[in-house]
Amino acid sequence: MTLSSVTDGIDQVQFEHVRVLVLEDVPTGQTTLVDTAFEENGEELVETLEAEYGDIDRVILTHGDHGHHGGLAHVVDAFDPKLVMPADESKLYDHLEEADLDVEPDVAYEDGDLLEGNIRVVQVPGHTEATSALLLEDREILISGDTLDGADRGGMPEGYLLPPPALFNDDHEAAELNLYNLLEYDFEAVLVFHGSHVFENPKQKLDDFLVEREWNEWDPRTDDE
Asked: In what order do the strands lie in the sheet with 19-24?
């Protein structure tokens, strides 16, 4: 496990297979944790958070994969944070029930909602039912959740973006098609949970990728209907 700064006010805690992000002073005077890694990472995650930040005021979960919510019980026990979770992500609620974790969201968000701290929710169904990205609108930074990976996760060059591998998607076609939802917003950086972050022209690179897909009939901009 390593802790490092991603950019001003945003840190990452990196585990073997996934990372989590810590937003300092978002909203003002509070510390927000985005996702909680796997259950087996939970104890070490809490120790790191306590040592570096003292307290966690809010947890935002992006979707229902174990690697993004598995450590939640540890974080809840340690900090009793405000919980912000997607309203329509049945996979997440099923997993929490299976784990006998009796929690309810303080905020159950939907696509387009604006969370405290000027964070816009952009949902991209396909990887899971309600996979969500989080746009820090005042900084034009997009936190991808699992809507996008760094291309180097799949052996491609760093600095580019790809959807998650088909193996991990509920509906791979939808996971790609719905990436057009992201292009409705402005962002200058994309922070991912797998692979390398992208700080140079991420929106244009995503647009180029989608245009060049073999199934151009998916492209809403070429739909004659």
From this structure: 2-7, 10-14, 19-24, 31-34, 58-60, 82-86, 107-109
The residues facing 83 across adjacent strands are 59
pLDDT tens column, 37-63 = 999 999 999 999 999 999 999 999 999
Give the pair of three-digit tokens for residue 108: 């159950």
Other Cβ atoms within 10 Å of 102 Cβ, number:
9
Could you check whether the bond before residue 27 is cis, i.e. omega within 30 degrees of 0? Answer: yes
CATH number for 2-212 (one of 3.40.50.720, 3.60.15.10, 3.40.309.10, 3.40.50.280): it is 3.60.15.10
11-41: per-residue pLDDT in tens? Answer: 999 999 899 999 999 999 999 999 999 999 9
What's the CA gap between 134 and 142, in Å, rounded? 6
Burial of 200 (0-12, 13-18, 19+ CB in 10 A): exposed
Q: How big is the CA angle at 12 (ends 11 and 18), to the nearest 5 degrees?
A: 165
How would you label 158-178 residue by residue, b for 16+ Cβ within 10 Å and e otherwise? Answer: ebbbbbbeeebbeebebbbbb
Q: Would the pTM of this model clear 0.85, i.e. be above it?
A: yes
Residue 54: what pLDDT? 98
Which pLDDT score, from 0 to 100, does residue 212 have?
73
- H/E element, 132: strand 132-136
Q: Report the pLDDT value the prediction gives residue 225, as an integer from 0 to 100.
A: 45
Instruction: Supply the Cα-derived Rg of the chain in whole angstroms.
Output: 17
